[in-house]
Design a protein that fits this description.
The chain is mainly α. The protein has helices spanning 3-27, 31-68, 85-100, 110-118, 131-139, 146-179, 187-217, 235-241, 244-255, 265-283, 287-317, 325-344, 348-356, 364-368, 383-402, 408-414, 417-434. Helix 4 (110-118) packs across helix 5, helix 9 crosses helix 10 (265-283) and helix 10 (265-283) crosses helix 11 (287-317).
Length: 447
């Protein structure tokens, strides 16, 4: 397709602009430094705006135009969103911003800078790296390390297990229900919503594990992107554990630049809400993603505004059970799952339908359909599917819970060789024979 060489050319030119912008920012003084930084940011945001948001913007403008003139419309671009566009543009921007802030020396080797932007293990879905973490690693001489290779392969195997055994198996039900949500009500919608909460975690964290593992095999260490987010006791903690590279990116480069929480309370609330609104838009050119970001922004703003009154209420009433870890974790998971409805739904109308029909009894569609193949929800009536999924979820829970007390990677290395290899073969065979190999694309490839 014609857009592919055009995009490659645009990407190459953007990399060249960022490379020279970094050098110019480092050597310039005064307002020139801001000018060169602005050049870099405009180049990156411009590419992102055209490929990802142009049609979304024009589509909404056309909707308004149709109110006054049904035949009036602006042309749309016939382009496809390149894989990983949001990730490598944000990674490129982090470089020039860090050079501008004098936290990173400008990279003088064009090949190494290009490798930083396009490093293939994390190119399409992160983590969004910082130059301080990886640029120096590209200058270091690498040699074979048995420990690094085995550690990386273990991480890749675990990521693959989460992706194909858990996430892709759950995708059958989630995709069937959320593709045609109006065909269902009650239990199928509730189960699909819960499943998606787990699916997106295992899908995205599974990719991150494989990216970190692949880089480690080659001798590179990337930043951790997930830290057991569904054990969080609040939404703010959830965002310190979920997609860490993105949440810290927005915190360091947007939230703090807006003033963070060092301003008056109303402005701090606006800063927080605005950052999550932008975060939602970053995820996709759809009102559903904007709504998802707005919901999380509201969660955090409400939490900020009510923190003192909540603590005071608990102290006055002695209802300390309201602060119990288990209750807080459960409440956080419920809030996150509710927001995921908007993230997964194709339209706002679909999302509102799911919410309003979530607890509406049993669905005749769910009860009366007969089994017609693996691509339908009926597969979940097959006992071996439930058994495979239940076993995988139990293993995931036990391992993530155990990581509070021990480092699993270190624990594995310390085991006797027969025990260690029995665990390896167990994971490999579980994945090979019980994985749902149906070519389900990674969810975050679309961003």
């Amino acid at each position: 397709m014609a857009f592919i060489p055009v995009y490659i050319l645009i990407l190459f030119l953007t990399i060249v602009i960022d490379y020279y912008a970094g050098i110019l920012i480092e050597s310039a003084v005064g307002s020139q430094r801001k000018l060169y930084l602005a050049m870099s940011l405009v180049a990156n945001i411009g590419v992102l705006a055209v490929f990802k948001y142009y049609n979304f913007f024009i589509d909404n403008v056309n909707t308004l135009l149709h109110l006054s003139s049904p035949t009036a419309s602006l042309p749309l671009l016939n382009i496809i969103l390149p894989i990983g566009l949001s990730f490598h543009t944000f990674q490129a921007m982090s470089y020039t911003i860090e050079v501008y802030r004098r936290n990173q020396a400008a990279e003088r080797h064009f090949g190494i800078y290009a490798l930083y932007v396009m490093f293939y293990p994390q190119l399409v879905a992160g983590p969004i790296e910082r130059p301080q973490n990886v640029l120096h690693q590209f200058h270091e001489k690498k040699s074979f390390s048995y420990d690094q290779v085995t550690s990386g392969l273990r991480l890749m195997a675990w990521g693959l297990f989460k992706k194909v055994v858990i996430a892709d198996r759950m995708a059958y039900l989630v995709n069937e229900v959320y593709t045609k949500p109006h065909d269902f009500h009650g239990l199928p919608l509730l189960v699909a919503t819960i499943f998606f909460s787990v699916q997106i975690y295992c899908d995205f964290s599974g990719y991150s594990d494989m990216a970190l593992g692949a880089a480690r095999v080659m001798g590179f260490e990337l930043m951790k992107n997930f830290d057991r987010p569904y054990f969080s006791r609040s939404i703010s903690e959830f965002w310190r554990r979920w997609h860490i590279s993105l949440s810290t990116w927005f915190k360091d480069y947007l939230y703090i630049s807006l003033g963070g929480n060092r301003v008056a309370l109303p402005r701090a609330c606006f800063n927080l809400f605005f950052v999550f609104l932008v975060s939602g838009l970053w995820h996709g050119a759809n009102w559903t993603f904007i709504a998802w970001g707005a919901i999380h922004g509201l969660y955090l703003v409400i939490g900020m505004l009510t923190r003192k009154s909540r603590d005071s209420f608990i102290e006055r009433t002695h209802m300390h059970f309201l602060n119990s870890p288990l209750l807080n974790v459960a409440f956080t998971c419920i809030l996150a799952a509710f927001a995921w409805i908007f993230f997964r739904a194709n339209t706002l109308h679909d999302a509102l339908y799911v919410i309003t029909h979530l607890f509406e009894g049993s669905s005749s569609t769910w009860q009366n359909n007969t089994y017609t193949g693996l691509s339908t929800v009926k597969v979940f009536y097959m006992p071996h599917e439930w058994l495979a999924l239940s076993g995988a979820l139990a293993l995931l829970f036990l391992i993530e819970k155990a990581q509070y007390r021990i480092a699993i990677n270190t624990w594995l290395v310390q085991q006797a060789t027969p025990v260690r290899w029995a665990i390896y073969y167990g994971i490999i065979l579980y994945t090979a024979f019980l994985g749902a190999f149906k070519h389900v694309q990674f969810i975050y490839f679309q961003f």
